Amino acid sequence: MPEDPAPAPGPPRRLRIVGVSGAGKTRLARDVAERLRVPHLELDAVFWDAGWAYRDLGEAHAMIDAFVADHPDGWVAEGNWSSRLEGRLDPGTPDGADVLVWLDLPRWLVMVRVVRRTIARGVLRTSLWHGNRERPRDWLRWDPERNIVRWAWVQHPVVRSRMLARMGDTRTTSRGAAPAIVQLGSPRAVRAFVDGLGASRS
Asked: Which PANTHER family match (predicted)?
């Protein structure tokens, strides 16, 4: 007698979203968290402290570990920070993401978004994490470490090269179904991904 087919896997419940500055990580994370009814962790708020100082790494790791432990039914984490995460949240690691979502939008679109966002934050003096603000005087700095617009421009090909290499080395699957890395190359692909997660549950 043939065995019953295995049930179709549901949408991923633990997602990490990465991409260059201005790609739309935070917006996507909020949309996904709302759709799945799971909490959202912004890694910038974890690794930055007041005065644009780095938070103690041990403290940051403890915050992430506690967040994951407190939400076993699912979560969304967004932000790059791979060098400081030390493997945390990656697919295939203990308590890691089911899927790593890579926002790979065209460079021109990322730059339009990051310039628009940077001007708005500077003019409105938007308070970010722990009272930090982006400073208009940094707009003219050439150093990408001090100028978020330059950072987005310089990092776009770097992030893309790194992620493409990672995709080539990581043809693993998540729960035996979906690819562990999902590449979203356009706003339409982003919308389709969110829609594919199903309707928001009340």
From this structure: TOXIN, YALI0E33011P
